[in-house]
């Protein structure tokens, strides 16, 4: 799938119009329903390849990938399969039984970890995941890579916390002018 075909597939599959409340509490007249594009195997495979390009371009090398619940899970899986890199799955909250962990999979202190995420609005969700990895798991967060940046301040907020940020696509790339 070409870059432009992927943009078109995401837009056609997942762009909704209406009145939406976002995770940040903001209101929006449009919503990109990530589950509508993440549940389409052709789109997911193409996104895995896009993440792989970013991962291969990292000059210091990535040891592991991480995906936050829930939307980041299919993405990190696709990226892991496209690169052969191992991954961890990050929970929104610790389990209070069994292994009682907030992430699943294996992490080594000092690993360079790249986070995959679906949509960035304020960047709040991505920052939470990155802080957990950096401050509690003691890994080196190489970059937060999202599928779509809604261009509402996520980049500025993420970079202000000391993390690198990249978006595969922006709201402008998708031709959204709301
Ligand atoms: O940049 P932010 O302002 O933090 O908002 C964007 C986040 O909000 C959404 O998650 P949602 O709350 O729908 O959670 P889910 O992935 O568990 O469905 C979306 O998946 C992003 O992660
Ligand atoms: O900010 C959000 O919560 C959000 C925006 C959006 O376009 N899509 C989504 O899944 N979440």
From TrEMBL:
Function summary: Catalyzes the transfer of a ribosyl phosphate group from 5-phosphoribose 1-diphosphate to orotate, leading to the formation of orotidine monophosphate (OMP).
Associated pathway: Pyrimidine metabolism; UMP biosynthesis via de novo pathway; UMP from orotate: step 1/2
Reactions that this protein is recorded to catalyse: orotidine 5'-phosphate + diphosphate = orotate + 5-phospho-alpha-D-ribose 1-diphosphate
Binding site for 5-phospho-alpha-D-ribose 1-diphosphate: 23, 91, 95, 117-125
PANTHER family: OROTATE PHOSPHORIBOSYLTRANSFERASE (PTHR19278), URIDINE 5'-MONOPHOSPHATE SYNTHASE (PTHR19278:SF9)
Documented EC number(s): 2.4.2.10
SUPFAM superfamilies assigned: PRTase-like (SSF53271)
Tree of life domain: Bacteria
Residues of the Phosphoribosyltransferase domain: 39-157
Family of the protein in this entry: Belongs to the purine/pyrimidine phosphoribosyltransferase family. PyrE subfamily.
Summary of subunit composition and partner proteins: Homodimer.
GO terms under biological process: 'de novo' UMP biosynthetic process; pyrimidine nucleobase biosynthetic process
Protein name: Orotate phosphoribosyltransferase
Pfam families per record: Pribosyltran
GO MF assignments: magnesium ion binding; orotate phosphoribosyltransferase activity
